[in-house]
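ok so heres the complex, two chains, lmk if somethin looks off
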Amino acid sequence: MTLKDVKEILEAEVLVGSDQLEKPAKTAFAADLMSDVLAFAKPDSLLLTGLTNPQVVRTADILDITAIIMVRGKKPSEETIKLAEELKIPILSTRYILFETSGRLHARGVTGCIEKVGGET
Amino acid sequence: MAEPLYFEKSFDVEGGSFQNAGNVSGQIKGILKDLGVSTDIVRRVAIICYESEINIVSYAKRGTITLTVTDEAVKIETKDEGPGIADIELAMKEGYSTASAAVREMGFGAGMGLANMKKYADHLIITSELGVGTYVRMMVMNFQKILHPDLPSITL
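and the predicted structre for the whole thing:
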């Protein structure tokens, strides 16, 4: 699956990175707590979140996240968009709630970047 | 054989500057990548830097983050002018936090920061003085280089 497929499945609006839609998307992590994202998310995964501040982009950059999917129709601030453009991190916005977003992607083959916590590094 | 690698630089972090939180960590990540440090070590150092930076921004007036890179380890030292930590053992506990609402709105302040730093660093030391500030030293070791000293520097 690519970001383009993700966009279609989630009927998402591409806010940053329309030139990066060919990037592959195989795994994902979903959370609103950035410390948990830092603790558990893996590189080259999608980040599904309801947060919209610049720290989401920073967190994605630190972890080499493929793209940020903002759920529940959230739209990022101007600072967030500017930082994402600078760091070349795609942002998609979908109106689906986090549960539906995760379910729709999982049903199409996107898996969790880890299944459960404990034992992983 | 390549020359042993050595790099050192200090960065200033402004307390309360939430908009810029992460800026220094992004720079440090870029430096490590440019030095040819392995992806796994870059990621671990970037995470401990970022949590450290969030801590300084969230609690201190100002602070510095110092990056030292050698063949055998990446060292991150943070020093801040802030309130200090009354009970370090308690502060290390997952879920314990004294963070403000502003910090929580950013997606932090859930009492995971120090725990994350401990998780990703091979070595962590904290000293703190109430009303003065906090010093943290973290090391991410390049065990591959320690076990195989003949490897070229680029393998860090």
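quick notes: The mean pLDDT of chain A is 95. thats all i got rn
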